[in-house]
Design a protein that fits this description.
CATH architecture: 4-Layer Sandwich
CATH superfamily: Ribonuclease Z/Hydroxyacylglutathione hydrolase-like
Oligomer: single chain
CATH topology: Metallo-beta-lactamase, Chain A
Number of domains: 1
Helix content: 10-25%
Number of helices: 3
Number of strands: 13
Strand content: 25-35%
Length: 207
């Protein structure tokens, strides 16, 4: 039976829904939480860009505690919280977590311009996780080397399943987890992704 959480080494990765994930070990990290209910409070919240389904202030309010830090690229307005604005190509360390912002953009679509959005490579206890953000298959993916890659497959605003399958050939990862489908009208067949990507892991949304 498909589960919502994937465990690798001592790290748990839970798909919330859409592009939202919780990464947990000694710290609790959320990436792009969207329409969440009451969940475990966050040490870190990472936002990839300012679209409503990625920068969801209601979800941030639910998840934040007094010392939560929200990491985001330029263009995101996050008021009332401790924040860190990160630039593409920058690597920083926040609460013991190494965070690198990497490019995420559309090549043949108008929705995500180059330089406005980011993906993240997060290193937690020597486990490296890539959240691709809202992106097409881009040349910079060939520079990514991680344990786990979280990948959009929903099409319209990002790669579709076929493009995502091709993009997995660019990235060095032990496991690929598809995301960014099943919400806001985005339909995709994760079974097709799994059939074509040997090391794919299919999660079900927990929300």
């Amino acid at each position: 039976m498909t589960e919502s959480t994937f465990r690798y080494e001592n790290v748990e990765i839970t798909w919330l829904k859409h592009a939202g994930f919780r990464i947990k070990n000694s710290v609790v990290i959320y990436i792009d939480p969207y329409e969440v209910t009451e969940l475990e409070k966050a040490d870190l919240i990472l936002i990839t860009h300012d679209h409503f389904d990625h920068l969801d202030m209601r979800s941030i309010r639910i998840l934040a505690k007094s010392d939560t830090i929200v990491v985001h690229p330029k263009g995101c307005v996050v008021e009332g919280y401790k924040t860190y604005e990160i630039s593409i190509g920058e690597t920083t360390n926040v609460k013991g977590v190494e965070i690198k912002a990497v490019p995420a953009y559309n090549i043949d679509k108008p929705y995500h311009k180059k330089g406005c959005c980011v993906g993240y490579v997060v290193k937690v206890d020597n486990v490296r996780i890539y959240h691709a953000g809202d992106t097409d298959r881009i040349p910079e993916m060939k520079e990514i080397e991680v344990d786990i890659a979280l990948f959009p497959i929903g099409g319209t605003y990002t790669m579709d399943v076929d493009e995502a399958i091709e993009a997995t050939k660019d990235i060095k990862a032990k496991f690929f987890i598809p995301m960014h489908y099943g919400e806001i009208g985005l339909k995709a067949d994760p079974g097709k992704f799994k059939a074509s990507v040997e090391n794919a892991v299919i999660l079900k949304p927990s929300l």
